[in-house]
Design brief:
heterodimer, A: alpha+beta, 39% helix, B: mainly alpha, 55% helix, 0% strand, ribosomal protein (chain A), NUDIX_hydrolase_dom (chain A), Ribosomal_mL46_NUDIX (chain A)
């Protein structure tokens, strides 16, 4: 209305599309999208990756070559000739040579370790998604199950940014509100690592836009204690498992931010 | 005395280490007073006679024969090497592509932030000074116990925290530390 009275005072008669443009310009200036921060809480891998069959074979091959090429061992420097220590060393050395030739060196060294924990945890066998010991080789990300318009959706923890608050402060606050502060977390930097525009309901037509800035954080100790009012459930998932649980447009927004392995 | 020293400098390298022995014995006598010293000397300065491979690797006649036993053939070895380098190249390309995707996401996020709010954008781009302490931190540190103060000081802004664990071959004996005392870190 205001724009029409302004334009009517001009000499030229107002065109319909000009009026519409001025209306749009005024509404763009006033409507700033509501800013939210999401946190991608990552548990880094605990154990090293299992080498593939090709890698194992290559390492065994290289071990054989190194054994063939290495400088001769100065036996009489380290062992007194004829001593029992020397004979024990010779026995062990012959055993090692045989094992190297049979190409079972890698598994043998693993078995020789005294009382080492197994690489597969019981959480993997039981598919306990809340346990932080599962999938030691992979990167795990925290997902929360929330109620949105009656349906249950899986999302990263999220919170609104207050007026005058900085984004990374809002991220720490949001994480504490949604997941409790029983975790040793570290937000990596002041910069967001990704942005997501949730699809706004069609009725408002762009007036109330939401935008979510994602921040990366690492968890080093502790466990999630979800806030029961906001969230129903939580899970620590790998990238592939996230794809199966999350909505399709959410997945398209976040898939490039996450680590593949 | 000085004459014999000068003579030693003219000798080949291997025999210089035996200088002390030569100096202290009569001609033709081999000293066996300390066999350990002899062994050390023999290994540090291998004799020049070429009849046996030495630990320091000065003469290795057995290498070709040993290599013949270790590898199937020259062509097979080269094929294996090329396969390995190709495998490494694949891994490298995958890693680089993933990093590129992540970086593009970051760039997109910063572009949109700049459009939405210039103040938030400026604050997000600020360089972290590791030695600076924010007002909130200084205020909070005044009323903290010693261990809590140490916990705050140990987290240096802009550096990785010490508690980030490097992956090992087997998991820790006690598993993931689920119990952690809740500690409110002051806002940086």
């Amino acid at each position: 209305m205001f724009s029409r009275t302004v334009l009517s005072s001009c000499k030229r008669a107002p065109q319909a599309h000009e009026v519409a443009q001025v209306d749009a310009a005024l509404s763009k200036k006033t409507a700033r999208p509501k800013v939210h921060t999401g946190i991608i809480l990552n548990r880094s891998p605990i154990i090293t990756r299992t080498p593939t069959a090709f890698e194992k074979a290559y390492y065994a091959y290289q071990t054989r070559i190194h054994r063939a090429l290495h400088n001769p061992f100065p036996y009489d420097f380290y062992f007194k000739q004829g001593s029992p220590l020397e004979s024990r060393f010779n026995i062990e050395e012959r055993r090692r040579e045989r094992k190297a030739e049979a190409e079972k060196l890698a598994e043998a060294t693993m078995r020789d370790e005294e009382e080492a924990m197994p690489r597969v945890h019981e959480a993997d066998i039981n598919s306990d998604f809340k346990n932080l010991n599962r999938r030691g080789q992979r990167n795990l990300y925290l997902l929360l199950q929330k109620q949105e318009n009656g349906t249950a959706v899986w999302k990263f923890p999220q919170g609104i940014v207050d007026r005058g608050e900085l984004l990374h402060h809002a991220a720490t606050r949001g994480l504490e509100v949604e997941c409790g502060n029983n975790m040793d977390t570290w937000i990596v930097s002041r910069n967001p690592i990704g942005v997501f525009h949730p699809p706004s309901p069609a009725s408002t037509g762009g007036a109330e836009e939401d935008v979510v800035f994602f921040y990366k954080a690492h968890i080093m100790a502790g466990q999630v204690r979800p806030n029961r009012t906001h969230t129903q459930d939580f899970a620590w998932l790998t990238k592939g498992e996230i794809k199966t649980r999350v909505d399709e447009d959410y997945w398209l927004g976040i898939k490039d931010i996450l680590s593949d392995f | 005395m000085s004459v014999s020293v000068l003579k030693l400098n003219g000798l080949p390298f291997q025999l210089r280490g035996l200088g002390a022995r030569l100096y202290s014995t009569r001609k033709g006598e081999v000293s066996s007073s300390d066999p350990q010293k002899d062994i050390i000397r023999r290994h540090l300065y291998p004799p020049n006679i070429r009849n046996k491979a030495s630990p320091t690797g000065t003469w290795r006649p057995d290498v070709a024969r040993a290599l013949q036993r270790a590898i199937p053939s020259v062509q097979a070895h080269e094929t294996i090497e090329r396969a390995w380098l190709l495998h490494q190249r694949h891994l490298r390309k995958k890693r680089d592509a993933e990093l590129q995707r992540k970086f593009n996401c970051m760039r997109q996020a910063m572009q949109e932030l700049e459009e939405i709010d210039s103040r938030l954008f400026r604050e997000a781009n600020k360089q972290e000074d590791p030695r600076a302490r924010s007002l909130a931190e200084v205020e909070a540190m005044k009323s903290m116990s010693e261990p809590e103060k140490r916990a705050v000081e140990s987290r240096v802004r802009g550096l990785f925290p010490r508690e980030l664990r490097i992956p090992t071959d087997t998991p820790p004996k006690n598993g993931w530390p689920n119990e952690w005392r809740a500690f409110q870190r002051p806002l940086a």
